[in-house]
Amino acid sequence: MKKLSQPNLSNGMETRFLSLLSFLLLFLFNEASAQDTIFFNNESVLVAKISLVDTKEIKYKKLKNPNGPTYSLAKSEISKITYANGSVDTFDADEEPAVDIVNPLFNKLPSDVSPLNTDVIITKNGKGIYCAIKMADNSRIRYQIFRRGADPVNTIPLENVLEYRYRGVIKKVNLSSTTTNTSTDDTDDDFVYEERRRYGGPRIGLTTIGPGAFSDVLNYDGNRTTYTQFGWQFETRMFTTKEGLSGMLEVVPMIGGMDMGTIIPSISGLIGLRTKNGIEFGLGPTLALYVSQNTSSSSLGVVIAAGMSIKSGKVNFPINLAFVPSISKKKDVFNPTTGNYESKTYDTGFKLSLLIGFNYRKH
Question: Which CA distances in Å does 146 have to 117, 240, 259, 363?
């Protein structure tokens, strides 16, 4: 009797195993070859799936989340890209950015704009704001405008913005997009804007003199102790903090007494602070002189000033009260009765002034 051969089961299992292994290797190869590699200028590397290479930015998705949000990178930060098919794109860091043909406001900064204002915000009414963007998220943009002085950080709602350029990348605003923008905040809690601004403008007001040596001299010549003041304010704004607090230096020369037919010149120098709301305070030296045919006197002291500066457009309207305390002094006076000089104490008399005016930015 002929013996039947048994089927070789092991050969069939090996064939199926090799087929499955080949399929897995092919799948892994395709997955590995589907990834793109981004090489940065700082020599770091990012593996991702690139969806768009534009003139100024590159958009990509994370490999682990291909259906997730799309991320953007500035083209100026990248040295080259190796694609899944093996092709390579290289980028020159010194390459001039392409001209934006959509909005000419992005093309070139106006000649009167500070080079610190490298970012641009295009509002929906077509206005271009040349500034330094401090933070941009999905609801607002915080920015600061550098001129010859520094403005506090301003905020504009994203609903009022058409598009903006931040760090060389132009981004169009789409409020209906579900993609969450990564918020980047470069502001420093201790940041101080140090650029100076200079202001100038006229001052007028009234000054009254309290009892003392200065008023005695005025009375001796038949003049009143309350008289008009006319002068000019020279202001230098030294800095402005992020919260809007400004440091100031002021020089205010005045001429008083013209309503009485006389001249009482004075000059004051103040170091002060002004809040974002316009409330201001200052302190410094002051000197006033009075000279007539019969007598003369001088008043040297410290002026303490406080008030408010109301801003309307580019013009400020300051209203201030200035107070100079009375000072007690001693003077040797000749006594004809005794024929000797005697030490006598007298007060200079306080001064209180109400001053108003306006000033505008000069530099």
Answer: 6, 12, 44, 13
Taking only the tens place, the pLDDT of each residue in 316-348 is 899 999 999 998 888 776 677 777 777 788 888
Q: State the sign of the Cα–Cα–Cα–Cα dihedral 338, 340, 345, 347.
A: positive
What's the CA gap between 135 and 155, in Å, rounded?
9
Contacts of 350 (CB under 8 A, 6+ apart): 209, 210, 212, 323, 324, 325, 326
DSSP letter string, 217-253: HHHHTT--SEEEEEEEEEEEEEEEETTS-EEEEEEEE
| pLDDT confidence tier of residue 194, bands split at 50, 70 and 90 | very low
The DSSP secondary-structure symbol of 216 reads: H
Taking only Cα atoms into account, the Rg of the chain, rounded to an integer number of angstroms, comes to 38
Element (H or E) spanning 14, and its range? Answer: helix 9-33
Q: Give the pLDDT confidence of 77-97 residue by residue, as tens digits.
A: 788 888 777 777 887 655 444
Residues 6 or more apart whose Cβ sits within 8 Å of residue 260:
223, 224, 227
- Tokens 């064939």 sit on residue: 15
Q: What is the DSSP letter of 258?
A: G
Q: Tokens at residue 101, please?
A: 């043909």
Instruction: Kindly state the tokens that stand for 222.
Output: 């038949």
Question: Which distant-in-sequence residues (6+ apart) come within 8 Å of 150 by Cβ?
Answer: 144, 193, 194, 195, 239, 240
- The letter for the amino acid at 216 is D
d(CA 305, CA 319): 10
Q: How many helices (H) and strands (E) does the chain have?
A: 2, 25
Q: Report the b/e string of 141-157 with b at 16+ CB within 10 A.
A: bbbbbbeebbbebeebe
- For 218, other C-beta atoms within 10 Å of its C-beta total 23
Considering only CA atoms, which of 265, 280, 199 is closest in space to residue 234? 199
- Identity at 72, one-letter amino acid code: S
